[in-house]
Amino acid sequence: MSPIRLGVNIDHVATIRNARGGAHPCPIRAALLAMEAGADSITAHLREDRRHIKDHDLERLKTEVPLPLNLEMAMTEEMLAIALRLRPHAVCLVPEKREEITTEGGLDAIKFETKLTPYVYKLQQNGSRVSLFIAPIIAQVEAAARIGARVIELHTGAYADFGLAKEAEKEKYELAALTSAAQTAHSLGLEVHAGHGLSFTNVGAIAKLPHIAELNIGHFLIGEAMFIGLKEAITKMRTAINGGNI
After folding, report:
1. Which of 103, 130, 131, 210 fits 151 for a cystine, CB–CB 3.0-4.6 Å?
2. Burial 87-124 (b: 16+ CB within 10 A, else e)
3. 89 belongs to the catalytic site
4. Contact status, residue 237 vs residue 227, Cβ threshold 8 Å
5. What is the 3-state secondary structure (H, E, C) of 107-134?
6. Catalytic, out of 12, 45, 155, 193
7. Contact, 30 vs 13, CB < 8 A?
8. Does some domain include residue 228?
9. 137 phi/psi in degrees, rounded to 5
10. Whole-angstrom Cα distance, residue 87 to residue 71?
11. Is the dihedral of CA 44, 46, 47, 50 positive or negative?
12. Domain with 143 in it: what CATH number?
């Protein structure tokens, strides 16, 4: 088995920067530190309201950071035009609502199958790998395969939330759903990624899921970095992913 890749999301470095409207802290510097710590890719979500990552951040990430860029974005014509021009290594299509604090659920690949199919095709023809950020539901996985995406990213938020709430049975149910979704995706020829709400304490079970190739983690790492530094936080996350003690 190949080691699970770790994508580091640097959105919330930009959130802190934007709170004061200046240039510090710099998300590009964070991306370079993540690379030094062994990150395999950098994830950044360009939201429609530009609440954290800005357009110029993407330009700099693409030109100054020698790691694959995973661009998270909504399924809009504006974002399509940006992605086609920028040509990131990967595009992860996510649902987006202006009023949400963070992404609240998975993209409804079933509902938007007709719209997503040509959208995904254009991105892939332009050289970007496309993933759909979906809930661990078999029908959603099957829709992703029909659409033509080559990758899915399973939303682990419910699993993480039930773990924090100490609701063991619900946590166990979500882990079973993630397991089944990963197995189905693999059988359909899709690469499987996962992310949302992952931490040192809950990432181990996700890393043990069948066929997981990549985990994308951001908020927890940036928060932990305030106490132990970003490089140390990423190193500890690697240890947790690999099943070691931290």
Report:
1. 131
2. ebebbbbbbbeeeeeebebbbbbbebeeebeebbeebe
3. no
4. no
5. CCCCCCHHHHHHHHHHHHHCCCEEEEEE
6. 45
7. yes
8. yes
9. -125, 130
10. 9
11. positive
12. 3.20.20.70
CA 221 to chain CA centroid, Å, is: 13
Cα 54 from chain centroid (whole Å): 17
Candidates 12, 72, 171, 224; catalytic one: 72
CA 3 to CA 152: how far, in whole Å? Answer: 18
Please give the structure tokens belonging to residue 61.
């990430």
Beta bridge partners of 195: 155, 216
Is 121 part of a structural domain of the chain?
A: yes
pLDDT of residue 142: 98
Task: Please name which of 140, 156, 48, 163 lies closest in space to residue 100, comparing C-alpha atoms.
Answer: 48
Inform me whether the pLDDT recorded for 103 exceeds 70: no
Q: How many domains does the chain have?
A: 1
- Whether 246 is in a domain gets the answer no
Please give the pLDDT value at position 92.
98
Find the domain containing 65 and state its range.
Answer: 5-241
**pLDDT surpasses 60 at 216:** yes
What is the Cβ-side half-sphere exposure of residue 28, based on CA atoms within 13 angstroms? 14
DSSP state of 2: P
Q: What are phi and psi of 216, to 5 degrees?
A: -115, 120
In the residue annotation, 196 being an active-site residue is answered as yes
**Cα–Cα distance measured from residue 227 to residue 233, given in angstroms and rounded to the nearest whole number:** 9
What length is written for the chain?
246
Per the annotation, the verdict on 72 as an active-site residue is: yes
pLDDT over 90 (residue 129): yes
Token pair 């790492």 is at which residue?
221
Choice among 52, 153, 196, 214 that is catalytic: 196
pLDDT at 188 over 90: yes
